[in-house]
Amino acid sequence: MRSDLIAICSDHTGIEYKFLIINFLKKKGYKIKDFGFNKSGKKVDYTDFVHPTSVFVEKGLAFLGIVICGSGNGAAMTANKYVNIRAALVWNKKTSFLAKKHNNANIISLPALFINKYEALEILEIFLKTNFEGGRHRIRIKKIPINPQ
Questions:
Q1: H or E element at residue 117
Q2: CATH number for the 5-142 domain, one of 3.40.1400.10, 3.30.420.40, 3.30.530.20, 3.40.50.720?
Q3: Is a pLDDT exceeding 60 seen at residue 21?
Q4: Which amino acids are annotated catalytic?
């Protein structure tokens, strides 16, 4: 798995956030795989972009995925259809911290309608700096899939 590659996508609601986040991450030295949406003024279905992003992360081609839609719920629900994805809807610093520390989330879903751009970057910064705690949390994570491994 590449530890410097991040997959990202958004729907029409999150497009400005996506471009802001891409620039932020590139300045930090990360490589980005952008799965779209890239045109403003048109409404699209977040699922069309979240599915390929999730597959890319599930295959281990990126260590993290970022999905952005209006509420963050639909994008997280879509990503979580994949067995090896742990997508977390994050809307503040604490949920970002816990998503990584306790759940070892590999996709974060940002709700563009409920956080501002500064908060989005702050949430992402915390997520990137937080390490997975392991231990009892590792046992719980193994129980998440319907057919635990």
A1: helix 117-129
A2: 3.40.1400.10
A3: yes
A4: 69, 102
